[in-house]
Design brief:
seven-stranded mixed β-sheet
Length: 232
C-alpha cells in the first residue's frame, strides 16, 4: 500500500498579526512547517507533497526541504486562493497512490502514534480523521449571542489533521468540488471530511488524536508551542 502525505503550507496566517506567514515563523529555532515535514519524513508514509504559495516554492525548496534533508518530499506545488484549492492541487500532484493523508503544516506537533493510528484505520474505514473529544460545554447561539442550544458534549469531537482517505474517494470528491467551483456554485466547506461527506456521502471515522496537536494560528499559540517543545 502506498501512502502519500499532502502538507499544506500556503496559508497567509492573518490571525497571527505578522508579516511573516505562520508556517514560516520560528518555533524553537526552526520554521513551523519543519515540524510537520519532519513528522511525516520519519513516519512510514512513502512520499510527501508540499503545497505552498507560488512565491514561496523556491524558499521552501532551499531553506526547508534541502536545508533539513527531507528526502520524502517528491514535489513542491503552488496552492490556491482557498484551502480546498490547495488540497486539490496537492491531490493532482500526488499521482498514483492508495491512500492520502492531508495535514495542515500549522499543526506542528503531530505525533507518530496518531499518524500510525490513521494509516491503520483508513484501510478499514476508507475515510478517517484525527480528532479529540471536547472538554468544555459547547453552546449554540443566535445572532444576538444568546444561547439557543447545548449539544451533548459526549457526542462532540474537535477535528484535527491529518485527515486520511482512500485516494480515489478523496480525488473524486475534490474533482466534483472543482467542477462546481468552475460553475460558480460550490458549497461552503471548511475541511476535507466535509468535501467527502458532501460529494461521496461517506462519513469519516474518528481516530484518537492528541490534545498537543494544536494549530499554530494566533500569537499565543507560539507560546503554547514552545512549551510543548520544551516538554518534549
Amino acid at each position: 500500500m502506498k501512502y502519500t502525505a499532502i502538507v499544506l503550507a500556503a496559508g497567509k496566517g492573518t490571525r497571527m498579526q505578522s508579516n511573516v506567514s505562520k508556517q514560516f515563523m520560528e518555533l524553537g529555532g526552526k520554521p513551523v512547517v519543519y515540524y510537520s515535514l519532519k513528522a511525516f519524513e520519519v513516519s512510514p508514509v512513502d512520499n510527501i507533497i508540499l503545497v505552498t504559495g507560488e512565491k514561496d516554492i523556491e524558499f521552501c525548496r532551499k531553506e526547508v526541504v534541502e536545508k533539513y534533508g527531507f528526502t520524502k518530499v517528491t514535489a513542491i506545488t503552488a496552492g490556491g486562493a482557498e484551502r480546498y484549492l490547495s488540497v486539490w492541487n496537492g491531490i493532482q500532484a500526488a499521482g498514483e497512490c492508495d491512500y492520502i493523508l492531508i495535514h495542515d503544516s500549522a499543526r506542528a506537533f503531530i505525533d507518530q502514534e496518531t499518524i500510525l493510528r490513521c494509516m491503520k484505520d483508513v484501510r478499514e474505514s476508507k475515510a478517517c480523521v484525527a480528532a479529540v473529544p471536547v472538554k468544555d460545554t459547547i453552546k449554540k447561539v443566535d445572532e444576538e449571542l444568546k444561547s439557543t442550544e447545548t449539544p451533548d458534549r459526549s457526542r462532540l469531537w474537535i477535528i484535527q489533521t491529518p485527515q486520511v482517505f482512500e485516494q480515489k474517494l478523496v480525488a473524486d470528491a475534490y474533482r466534483m468540488l472543482a467542477e462546481e467551483i468552475a460553475a460558480g456554485k460550490a458549497p461552503s466547506v471548511t475541511d476535507d471530511t466535509m468535501v467527502v461527506e458532501y460529494y461521496m456521502h461517506k462519513p469519516a471515522h474518528m481516530v484518537m488524536g492528541s490534545y498537543y496537536n494544536l494549530k499554530v494560528t494566533t500569537p499565543e499559540d507560539l507560546v503554547f508551542g514552545n512549551a510543548i517543545l520544551n516538554n518534549r
